[in-house]
Each structure stands twice: as C-alpha cells, then as structure tokens.
Amino acid sequence: MSYWPSMILLDELDKRILQQLQLDATLTNHALAERVHASAPTCLRRVRRLMNEGVIARQVAILAPDKVGAGLTAIVEITLDQQATEKLIEFEQTVTTEAAVQQCYRVSPGPDFVLIIQVADMNAYHALAHRLFATQHNIRNVRSFFSVFRSKFETRISLS
To answer: What is the pTM (predicted TM-score) of this model?
Structure first.
C-alpha cells in the first residue's frame, strides 16, 4: 500500500481553473470560463476531468465555527502504546466516526497522531475526550492545546 498517491500533471489552464475554484466553488461554468480565459465547453470538460481524476476531492461550504456553536478548537497529540499498522488503522477508524474530529494526521517523529477538533466548549471537549481517549486501551498519552485566537485559516493549495 502506497501512502503517496500518484500525482496528476496539471497544465496552466488546469491550474487557473483550480485557483479560481479554490476561491469560489459556486462560480457557474460560464463565469469560470470567463475568468480563466477558456471556452465554456473546454472549461466544463476540464472540471469534469479534474473531478473524475480526484484532483477536486469535493466542493463544500466552509462555516464559521463560532457562528454555528462550535467555537472551541483543540489541537490534540495522541501517542499510542502499540504502533503496529493494525493499531494505527484501528485508532483512525475510531476517530473518523466522530464528527467533531475535523482532521486526523499520522505524524512522525513525536506523537503518532495530531487531531484538529472543533466543539462547542470545554464541557463538550471533555465529553469527547472521555469517549474517544479515556476508554481506549491503546492510548499512552493525550496532549491537548486550545486555540485562543486563529490568525490564519486557509483551504487553498498553492499550485505554482
């Protein structure tokens, strides 16, 4: 099993399309074509190809956490007792079922995982931590950091 998926070669038009969609995925095909200086049929074909090849993973609305009652961000480091592949996968499967876990990264060196968690408040975090971490037998250490201010949040990937 490869951890590094094959990279898709992108030409300049693909990159212009992706840059515009990262800024505003609600653009109509016609508006997108105008912005990238291509015909509407060409643009539509390119977007479909980029979606079919998995370059565009999905299109979503990004919410403001504090406006929807999820104002506490926790960055959590997890170290497991046993790091066998099946134990790592087992942990990942457990946390991916939890909606409050926004991101889960296997990392090295240091802890085994870093999680980004978005919850309403400290009480919600304690409930989640008990449910996800305290009841798991293979967790050696949990280290949590709480965001007091977010100075940058970006979803765009540089295509230069």
So the answer is: 0.86
